[in-house]
Amino acid sequence: HLKEPTLCSGSRRHHGTLMAEEAKKLAAYAAVDTHIQNNQVVGVGSGSTIVYAVDRLGKTKICFLSIVLIQARQLILQHGLTLSDLERHPELDVAIDGADEVDAALTLIKGGGGCLTQEKIVAGCAKHFIVIADYRKDSKALGQQWKKGVPVEVIPMAYVPVSRAIARRFGGEAVLRMAVSKAGPVVTDNSNFILDWKFEHAQKWKEVNTAIKMIPGVVETGLFVGMAERVYFGMEDGSVKTR
Ligand code: 5RP
């Protein structure tokens, strides 16, 4: 899932707007330059935006990286960075990661790429959790930008009862995420399934997150409440907005 970004070729601007890939890079570079020092232990998540952060780290810093996905390994080694893990470095100086949506209170939806539990563990081990995203993720309220719902990682045998419990208690529907090929469900990095909870209205996210986690069979939710310290958005006009 740590995908190679499609770098924009030619003109940096497209019809007067900075394309999303350039915006991701702007956010990633600004966050790395501001928050990460040499010799720090840094946690990185997954997705296309984080690739730019690893790229910047490789060019400017010497640090130890604790990673969410083994797919990141090659990228880290390519950039001459040192690979670590939570056994060697259970406390991280900084964690940096992308997001699918960020609201005004810095509550995040994550897990659009299928990783959320390991990302939340890494973020939870860090003294500072910094989020990087392009302008499309910037939202006043969750659900305004990201239409695919809140990912919930579940133990495979429990996906039907968990789906029903979420719909009954919080409304909307929680749909099993299928592979693009439709050959079967998406299987996470922990060998679990994902339900995408398409909620109908705004919620008290902290309470809802806690309540969903109490349903037997739920491993973790893609709601990151009260975790992000600062978010960097690369904007269409080439600026970087922080919140
Ligand atoms: C993966 C994630 C990603 O951080 C999130 O989907 C953002 O990805 P991208 O940087 O490609 O937009 O949570 O499950």
TrEMBL record:
Q: Which GO cellular component terms are attached?
A: cytoplasm
This protein's record includes keyword Nucleotide-binding = no
Claim: Isomerase is one of the keywords in the record:
yes
What InterPro entries does the record tag this protein with?
A: NagB/RpiA_transferase-like, Ribose5P_isomerase_type_A
Source organism, top-level taxon: Eukaryota
Q: Which GO terms describe its molecular function?
A: ribose-5-phosphate isomerase activity
- The protein depicted here goes by the name ribose-5-phosphate isomerase
| The gene coding this protein | rpia
